[in-house]
Structure formats: C-alpha cells, structure tokens
Amino acid sequence: MNYKILVINPGATSTKVAFYEGERCVAKENISHPKEVSFEERKKLVREFMEQFGKPDAIAARGGPLKPLKSGTYRVTVEMVNDIKEGRVQAQHVSLLAPLMGWELGQELGIPAFIVDPVSVDEMIPEARLSGFPEIKRKSLSHALNMRAVARKVAEEMGGKFEDFNFVIAHLGGGISVSAFEKGRMIDTTNANEEAPFSPQRAGTVPSVSLVELAFSGKYTKERLIKKLLKESGLVGYLGTDDMREVTARIEKGDKEAELVAKAMALQIAKYIGEMAVVLRGKIDAIILTGGLANSTWLVERIKEYAGFLGKVVVYPGENELEALALGVLRVLRGEEKEEEY
Questions:
Q1: For the chain, which has fewer Cβ within 10 Å, the N-terminal or C-terminal residue?
Q2: Distance, CA of 249 to CA of 113 (rounded, Å)
Q3: pLDDT tens track for 122-173
Q4: Fold agreement (4-122+321-333, 126-317)
Q5: Class assignment of domain 126-317?
Q6: What is the CATH number assigned to the segment(s) 4-122+321-333?
Q7: How far, in Å, CA of 253 to CA of 259, rounded?
Q8: Is 319's pLDDT higher than 90?
Q9: Domain limits, the chain
Q10: Helix orientation angle between 297-307 and 256-279, rounded to the nearest 10 degrees
C-alpha cells in the first residue's frame, strides 16, 4: 500500500518538509525563516504545506538528542513529548521541535507520528562508553539517521542487507560523525559536539588541559566558550568561512593557509576512520563518506590518501534525511519492521 506520509525536519533557519506516497516523493520544500520564528508559526507553515496534498496516513518527524535509544522507528508518545518539554533530553537542539509538531498535528488529524533513528541512537559496546575520566561518560550523539539510510543503500548495491556487513561511516557536514557499524549495529561513534574531527564550524576534540586553562582564564563566560567551540571554530575559526567550496577555490588560487587547514581536517577525519576500523578489529567491508562535505572532490581525495589503505571507500554525497524518515515510517506501516517502544 502506498501510505501517505508527511515528513518534518526543522533546522535553525528553515524547516524542511516533504510529502511522500509510498517511496515516491510527491513534493518537498525548504521553508526559510529569515527571522526568528515561533513554534506555532512553524507548525502553521507545515500545515499549509501539508494541506496542498490532503490528509496523510502518518507523520515522520526528525528525532533529536532524546534519551539513549537503540536504532529504529518510534511512535511519538505523551512520555516523549513530556521528556522534551520538561528538559529530560541529552542536549537542547532545534530538531526536538519535530516530535512536538508531529504530535500536535497527529492529534489534530487522528494519525500517528513517528521518529526514525534519532540523534541519540545508542548501541555502543560497554568498553566504548568509558572516557578515561570517571566523572564524564561518553555520549552517543550522532548523525545516525543519514548514516543508517546510506548504509542500507550501499549494502543493497553490494548485494546484501545492512545487517550483513561491517561499515565505517563518516557523515561530513556542519558537524562530523564517524561511526563503526557491525552487522547493522552502531557499536561506537564520535560525538560531533565534543569528540570528533574539527568541521566547518565545530572544534571537535581539543587538548583537554589547555581547554580547562582557557575556561578558567577569565577570558570567556561558559556560554561564550561553548558557542566558540560549536559555532566559531574549525574552518570558520581558522579561515573566516565555513563553506568548503570557498576554501577549495582559495586552495586552487594558491592559498597555502587554506590548504593547510583543509588538509588538517581531512587528516583528522581519516584518523577517526582508523579509530573506528580498530573498533571493528579491521574487519571492514567498506568505508562510506556521506553528508554535504562529501560533495567536495578535493576533501574526499585527501581522506582517501590518508585512509584508503584500510579498505574500499564508497562516496554517497549529500543528506537523505527526508527520504530516510519517510522510508523508516513506511517500513513500520507495511509491517516490514517492528515499531520500537520509547
């Protein structure tokens, strides 16, 4: 059956929406928010988009940094909504608006809302949870949705199912996640905000003692330093731009500083790929590069130079989150996959 599915994926300055009939995307739109917009205004714009196509059978909403969950598709429940509203989440992120919108629209329409492979997918093996500092436990917060969706496609192209293979997957975007997938399970991952390669905006892993000294130097407030780590570091911190296309253009014109910084980012990505290869004990069927930065041939080639010896490298550029959300809900509605309990 070609179930009709409304897909909602909010971002900081826009809300991405789509309407699917079965596997077919009928329409999608990136609703821009040039100024700060309220939750109700966002919901109104999503409803107006939906009304062009009629009543859906279900809603697929982006899942944010909720409590630790195993991978899969979850129905949005009162408990999930209350956890978000009352702050029982691992971090505050705009993606948490999606389950709230899905819940309220679903209640109005009398249809279920779901999330798929949220940011908080946590399937780490026990030994991967220790940071080395007892007071701090490693968190599993990653781009699980896109990574798992791309892994399914690569597995199909390789003649099998996702659960048949071992993959190291690097999602290369505004933040970077590098994860080890063993037979479909994400047994270790980087946290794009705290321990990861530096990225277009984020600092990733930084020397810990030096960071503590900076934090107590009096130069920064807590809020200002966190903003610097997450929004003003990486490419933009070194080069004044977070656009890899601009960085590449500067490299082509002979800008040595731009080349050094971009090579350093490629090296860090490759080092984390190597780390995840170790987690899989070297048993890798493919290394997959995905996300927006995978569109950069320059960056991809540098990563291959460093990490290509580890195994086959497959490049799947871009983000497929709207499709991944729709297909995750579709599998549950068709009975192909069991709905997980929140």
A1: N
A2: 44
A3: 999 999 999 999 999 999 999 999 999 999 999 999 999 999 999 999 999 9
A4: yes
A5: alpha beta
A6: 3.30.420.40
A7: 10
A8: no
A9: 4-122+321-333, 126-317
A10: 50
Of 32, 2, 71, 6, nearest in space to 325 by CA: 6
Judge contact between 177 and 143, C-beta under 8 A. Answer: yes
Q: Which of 120, 168, 86, 16 has its CA nearest to residue 340?
A: 120
pLDDT digits (tens, 9 = 90+) for 269-282: 999 999 999 999 99
Which tokens sit at 44?
A: 């109104």
3-class secondary structure per residue, the chain:
CCCEEEEEEECCCEEEEEEEECCEEEEEEEEECCCCCCHHHHHHHHHHHHCCCCCCCEEEEECCCCCCECCCEEECCHHHHHHHHCCCCCCCCHHHHHHHHHHHHHHHHCCCEEEECCCCECCCCHHHCECCCCCCECCCCCCHHHHHHHHHHHHHHCCCCHHHCEEEEEEECCCEEEEEEECCEEEEECECCCECCCCCCCCCCCCHHHHHHHHCCCCCCHHHHHHHHHHCCHHHHHHCCCCHHHHHHHHHCCCHHHHHHHHHHHHHHHHHHHHHHHHCCCCCCEEEEEEHHHHCHHHHHHHHHHHHHHCCEEEEEECCHHHHHHHHHHHHHCCCCCCECC
Q: How many CB atoms lie within 10 A of CB 146?
A: 23
Q: CA 87, 181, 6: angle at the middle one, nearest 5?
A: 55
Strand duo 14-21 + 4-10: pairing:
antiparallel
Calpha distance 97→297 (Å, rounded): 34
Alpha-carbon distances, residue 218 vs 226, 278, 306 (angstroms): 14, 40, 39
Of the candidates 179, 175, 173, the one whose C-alpha atom is nearest the C-alpha of residue 147 is: 179
